[in-house]
């Protein structure tokens, strides 16, 4: 065990090493082998697999079950670690209590899916002498805390709640960006599937899980939002604006705009100008 001023690092412990003598503010647990499950553990989203990290607090620690072949690392942050982190990691603005509030919910540990920087941090003290473990351990702890501080918890929550991999989430965000950057073009599901190397069915399901709408519905909504902005802010003709959002047919554009915005482009522009004048 590595002990650094209120931070305890339990290195390569098994499934039976679970008793805590006091309550930590925050726990980072990295699964090297086996798995961890909790309430409703039959569901994939309630399991931690090898290569992933679990973030939780004292309220959750007793609800975790580790498989018989489990092996992993646990880093526990206690009250006195606050002062140590503030003094030794000055300039990084890391607050353990704020991190715990950001990451932890009662009975619901937070999964950080496979990330190279997380695995690399935990490997830093492998095969090191006791003296070197302390030095490398401090560096690894800083890296892990910075990773959590800068983590996009919204994406990670989507991974957990929808049972999607981080790679799938990343591809879906790339697809969304591609659509929004090419509003003047329409793409089929097959074209998007080929471009981003993702099966069509999986892509459609993942996209809806992440953004709450089917791909084409989302794309049309974003096109109409852009068109509405142009109608409000410029004097270009409606047909020209329609072309900028991928519509060469004025009537089809007007129909799509009314479906999304609740009024025709002409009505929308007139209402905006009347409101602006008023």
Helices and strands in order:
Blueprint: E1 2-4, E2 7-14, E3 26-33, E4 35-37, E5 47-49, E6 53-56, H1 58-61, E7 65-66, E8 71-77, H2 81-88, H3 96-103, E9 110-112, H4 116-123, H5 130-149, H6 153-162, H7 166-181, H8 189-195, H9 200-211, H10 215-233, H11 238-244, H12 250-261, H13 265-277
Antiparallel strand pairs: 1-2, 2-8, 3-6, 3-8, 4-5, 4-7, 6-9
Helix pairs in contact: 4-5, 7-9, 10-12
Name the features.
alpha+beta, 9 strands, single chain, Jelly Rolls, 278 residues
Can you describe this structure?
This protein has 278 residues and is α+β, with helices and mostly antiparallel strands. It folds into three domains: 2-150, Jelly Rolls (Sandwich), CATH 2.60.120; 157-212, Arc Repressor Mutant, subunit A (Orthogonal Bundle); 217-277, Arc Repressor Mutant, subunit A (Orthogonal Bundle). Helix content is 52%, strand content 15%. It contains 13 helices and nine strands. The protein has a six-stranded antiparallel β-sheet. Strands 5-4-7 form a three-stranded antiparallel β-sheet, with no helix packed on it. A hairpin with a 2-residue loop joins strand 1 (2-4) and strand 2 (7-14). The protein is elongated, with a radius of gyration of 25 Å.
Distance between the termini: 71 Å
Which structural class do you get from the secondary structure elements?
A: alpha+beta
**Pattern of helices and strands:** EEEEEEHEEHHEHHHHHHHHHH
> What integer is the average pLDDT?
84
What fraction, in percent, of the residue positions are helical? 40-55%
| Contiguous runs where pLDDT drops below 50 for at least 5 residues | 40-45
CATH fold category name of the largest domain: Jelly Rolls
């Amino acid at each position: 065990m590595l002990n650094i001023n209120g931070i305890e690092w339990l290195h390569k412990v098994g499934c039976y090493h679970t008793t805590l003598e006091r309550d930590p503010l925050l726990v980072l647990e990295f699964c090297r082998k086996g798995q961890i499950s909790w309430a409703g553990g039959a569901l994939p989203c309630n399991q931690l697999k090898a290569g992933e990290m679990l973030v939780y607090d004292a309220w959750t620690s007793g609800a975790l079950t580790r498989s018989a072949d489990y092996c992993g690392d646990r880093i526990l942050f206690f009250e006195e670690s606050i002062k140590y982190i503030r003094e030794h990691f000055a300039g990084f603005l890391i607050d353990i209590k704020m991190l715990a509030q950001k990451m932890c919910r009662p009975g619901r540990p937070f999964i950080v899916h496979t990330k190279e920087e997380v695995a690399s941090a935990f490997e830093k003290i492998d095969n090191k002498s006791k003296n070197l473990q302390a030095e490398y351990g401090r560096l690894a702890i800083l890296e892990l805390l910075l990773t959590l501080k800068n983590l996009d918890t919204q994406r990670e929550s989507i991974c957990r709640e929808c049972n999607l991999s981080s790679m799938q989430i990343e591809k879906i965000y790339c697809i969304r960006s591609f659509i929004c950057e090419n509003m003047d073009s329409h793409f089929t599901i097959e074209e998007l599937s080929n471009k981003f190397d993702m099966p069509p069915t999986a892509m459609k399901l993942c996209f809806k899980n992440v953004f709450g709408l089917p791909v084409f519905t989302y794309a049309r909504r974003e096109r109409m939002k852009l068109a509405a902005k142009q109608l409000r802010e410029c004097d270009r003709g409606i047909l020209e604006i329609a072309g900028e959002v991928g519509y060469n047919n004025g009537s089809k554009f007007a129909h799509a705009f009314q479906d999304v915005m609740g009024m025709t482009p002409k009505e929308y522009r007139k209402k905006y100008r009347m409101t602006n004048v008023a």
